[in-house]
Amino acid sequence: MADFVLETRNLTKSFGGFKAVSDVSLQVKRGNIHALIGPNGAGKTTCFNLITNFLTPTSGQILLDGRNVTGIGASQIARMGMVRSFQISATFGSMTVLENVRIALQRREVNTFNFWSSERGLDRLNGRAMELLDWVGLADLAQRSASELSYGRRRALEIAATLAQEPSVLLLDEPMAGMGREDIRTIADLIRRISASRTILMVEHNLSVVADLSDRITVLARGQVLAEGVYAEVSKNPDVIDAYMGGQHA
Ligand SMILES: Nc1ncnc2c1ncn2[C@@H]1O[C@H](COP(=O)(O)OP(=O)(O)OP(=O)(O)O)[C@@H](O)[C@H]1O
């Protein structure tokens, strides 16, 4: 088994003549919560898009469990166990909380039966969907419309829908964006529980959350890796303070 469940080697993405991601080599240890941070425009989202194969790199490689998965396609990457947090779209807002998770479960089985025509097929998934909802603290709200949920609960639903795909590596894109203090505490607890049996790579702007949750941190600036390590070290690095944290704590 490879030490690093996820690695990038010299990952580079150019848009025209502009390098949004330049020579980024990440090493994410199995079971860790690894945060990717950096100022606006540092290349974090582009990195995520490259890792999940939503974008094709200009050069460089992505390795999952030691296997080169560069360019194999987003759905195949997901089937191999690396899943990006599932964003609940407007369409899903009109469905119940339970239906949202059930449909996410269905995505895994899409080749085994025709779920659009089989209401019983969907019911079959109710048990597992309820387990997942219970796990994220939403079981009591299963029959409510997803659009009625508070922002924090919507995020918990997104996480339940993502877990339905049984990822071993979970990519979370700004899980705390737009949340109040109470929701942040709830979602941070949830992320910690999820990480007990999975690896998490997370882009997050809230540095106290990053400090609290992360085992390791990679700081990006202008598309390049500026520093990598534990929060206590990285946050003292003068280059990091200059490029990022200085701005945040000014
Ligand atoms: N499709 C694209 N075409 C051209 N330039 C792009 C494209 N996508 C991103 N960029 C540029 O690449 C750079 C990195 O953007 P990216 O969104 O990856 O940064 P980020 O670190 O996620 O920023 P933020 O924290 O603001 O979300 C930015 O300068 C951005 O304008």
From TrEMBL:
Domain ABC transporter residue range list:
6-247
Which keywords does this chain's UniProt record carry? ATP-binding, Nucleotide-binding, Plasmid, Transport
Out of the domains of life, which is the source? Bacteria
Coiled-coil spans are none
User: Has the keyword ATP-binding been applied to this entry?
Assistant: yes
- InterPro entries associated with the record: AAA+_ATPase (IPR003593), ABC_AA/LPS_Transport (IPR051120), ABC_transporter-like_ATP-bd (IPR003439), BCA_ABC_TP_C (IPR032823), P-loop_NTPase (IPR027417)
Q: Which GO terms describe its cellular component?
A: plasma membrane
Q: What is this protein called?
A: Amino acid/amide ABC transporter ATP-binding protein 1, HAAT family
Keyword ATP-binding (UniProt):
yes
GO molecular function term, any single one? ATP hydrolysis activity
